[in-house]
Design brief:
By secondary structure, this protein is of the alpha+beta class. About 45% of the residues lie in helices and about 30% in strands. The chain has a single domain, classed as Chemotaxis protein chec, CATH 3.40.1550.10. It is built from 6 helices and 9 strands, in the order E-H-E-E-H-E-E-H-H-E-E-H-E-E-H. Strands 1, 2, 3, 4, 5, 6, 7, 8 and 9 form a 9-stranded antiparallel beta sheet that branches. Strand 4 and strand 5 form a beta hairpin. Helix 1 packs across helix 4. The radius of gyration is 16 Å and the shape is globular. This is Chemotaxis protein CheC.
Length: about 210
Amino acid sequence: MLLGMEVDMTINIEDLNNLHIDVLREIGNIGAGSAATALAKMLNKKVNMDVPKVKVMEFKEVSETLGGAEILVIGILLGVNGELNGNIMFILEYNAAQVLVNMLLGKPLDELNDFNELELSALKEIGNILAGSYLSAMSSLTNLNIMPSVPDIAIDMAGAILSVPAIEFGKIGDTVLYIETEFLDGNTRVVGDFFLIPDVESYEILLKALGVIS
């Protein structure tokens, strides 16, 4: 999850101290636990998700984190509605998405074929569950009413996938908060990148709710 912050004298990501980072990490922990439970019920099998990693980075570093602008990825995009508005995107490297689908559907992990309609639908549902779980956790900790929309999915190079949020980030700043989502199955691990892009008006609402500004 990447959480953009407006860079000005009132709302600045540098105002995020260790306590605020801990609050956002806790949102990740609660969301990951809730998502693992929901996925386990949907798939009728245990789903393990590791403790999320949280760090601050510049938006221009994001494609490098994903493996470069030319790497093929799956992007799942959802709108955010309610007291916060904006977009959420969950990004998986293409082969990692194939492994994740195999992991969750009980197929051999090394079976790497093109996605069929059922598998793409499963990926959209995974993104939907993750988004719902993280937003529910954020809602619980901020008392804000936040809901995801129906997800869309795209397969493209990371640079192209990121061009949509890049346009949004360009309006408000270039620094983001990154929260990594990691799925585990035995010795196999799949890392996904999950980020939230609130619209300009939502920044102050979110930071006030988190206690970053008064």
